[in-house]
Amino acid sequence: MSQLNKDILFLLFEELQGDSKSLFSCLLVNRLWCETVIPILWRNPWNYVINYKNKSYLFAIIAFYLPIDIKEFLKSQGINFPSISYQSLLFDYLSFCKSINVKIIDSIIPIGSSLEYNQFLLQQEFYNLLITKCPELKYLDVKSINHQIFYFPEAKARLETLYELNCNTSINPTYLYGLARFCQNVQILIITNNTIKVNHGIAKLIEVQQNLKNFEWKDDFEDEPFIEDPYKETFLALEKKADTLNHLKIFFLYIDGYEYELLQQVFPKLNKLKTLIVDDFLFFPFFAKNQLIYQYIEVLYIDFIKINVASNIIENSGGHLKEILLFKSYDYDFEENFDKDSLNFIRKIYKHCPSIEYLTLAFSPTKEHFTEFEKLLNVCQNLKLLILDIIYIDEIETSEKILENGEELLKTLIKSAPANLREIRFFDYFKISLQALEEFLKKWSGRPALTILTNNTDYREEDYIKLINKYKNDRVIKDFRFVSRNEMY
Q1: Structural domain tally of the chain?
Q2: Cα distance between residue 46 and residue 48, in whole Å
Q3: Which InterPro entries does this chain map to (predicted)?
Q4: Over the stretch 212-250, which tens digit does the pLDDT of each residue have?
């Protein structure tokens, strides 16, 4: 294994770039593995699940690069540097680094000093060092930054190559104006809205981007009335990026009637979207039929949306949809024609989404619904994840009938589930007798092991647990977990 070609090892380690435990283990195998994995670890050294406050190594390595005169000055101010037992580093670590994360850097700064002024000096020197030493800066997270890094000598060259920028609205607008002078090729822009007033710098930052492809906005503030509208200027600027914008993620905490009107103006114009993820607010039911046409859409996650509005988006899509996760917070009791609309929704899926991989379905347990569900399974052969919600709108079913519906659904899955199906999640009203579940698991044997998630506590009973563990041991079930409703999505 140690003689594997270095290029092959690099490709293998690339697949583990989010798994810090495995990557750190690879360092210890031999020199070749170590030399191959170090550039991957140091590409974004702030990105690992580590308690940085207790890790002096990262601090020591960065401090090692400080010029001697700067280090002597900082020592004279009472700043301490961890001693290291070698005169030079084994690798030029910072030459691999392509990212700066202000929050993580600030978390290790107190290793040098507990005094606020000294920490300010250290921050400035660390940022300047990283701007100078990182040859190709791709990722920058400047939330809570106190230093105007765009004035550092190498800043212009580094910021011009920036691919991803992460900031928040509490940053002074003039700081964002400074970034906007040089950061004009950002493709991923992530904004955390943590104030209740507008930040004009955000709109300017959007305005200057020449190839903005991915935009994310997340509200994160106390429940207080807005001083100013924090959305209008930003989303009108975003509207002008419709020709390049492919991925949009929005997480609002609160909007009112005016914002509904704004978003109804902006969203239909973003017609190049491939990803649309919207969570925690209630405006999608107000879109008119055929108002949202996304011919390139591949990923559609919307927390609160009427079934017929979702069906219209699917009908007008270009057949590229791979993920449809909807209805998390929606109350189906408000649907006047739920049976008809849910039936239509299933038909739209198998007609317009042959490549679907992740899917939410909410439907009534009628014979016609089961028939259409089976057609969907036969057509959508790439399906990997199903989230199922059986809804009783018109009447309350008896316990016997609910169990019959659950059994019918399992029979449909055994008969027609595609070979790629790996995970099923089902809600409260999906109930299965012990006998029906065992019959299902027996027939599933021989297929890839299945993960099942549910928020129904019935399956915590002793007989169910015993059965589930038996089929876990037989590797028919990979995992069976009880989760909250929100965790089902």
Answers
A1: 1
A2: 6
A3: LRR_dom_sf
A4: 999 999 988 776 666 677 788 999 999 999 999 999 999
Give the 3-state secondary structure percentages of the chain, helix then strand then coil, rounded to 5: 45, 15, 40
DSSP state of 288: P
Residue with tokens 């009108």: 236
As a whole number, mean pLDDT of residues 410-420 equals 93
- Judged by DSSP in three states, 9 sits in helix
Domain hosting 35: range is 1-41
In this structure, is residue 440 part of a structural domain?
Answer: no
Assess if residue 34 is contained within a domain.
Answer: yes
**pLDDT tens-digit readout, 344-400:** 999 999 999 999 999 998 888 889 999 999 999 999 999 999 998 887 655 667 778
> Measured between alpha carbons, how far is 311 from 419 in angstroms, rounded to an integer?
26
C-alpha–C-alpha distance, residues 151 and 128, integer Å: 9
| Phi-psi map region of 148: left, alpha, beta (phi>0 left; psi -120 to 50 alpha) | beta
Residue 468: count of CB within 10 angstroms of its CB: 19
- CA 398, CA 332: separation in Å to the nearest integer? 20
Note whether 457 and 481 are within 8 A (CB). no
Question: How many other C-beta atoms are found inside a 10 Å radius of the C-beta of residue 444?
Answer: 19
C-alpha dihedral over 357, 363, 367, 368, to 10 degrees? -70
Confidence of residue 46 (pLDDT cuts 50, 70, 90): confident
**Token code pair at residue 68:** 């001697």
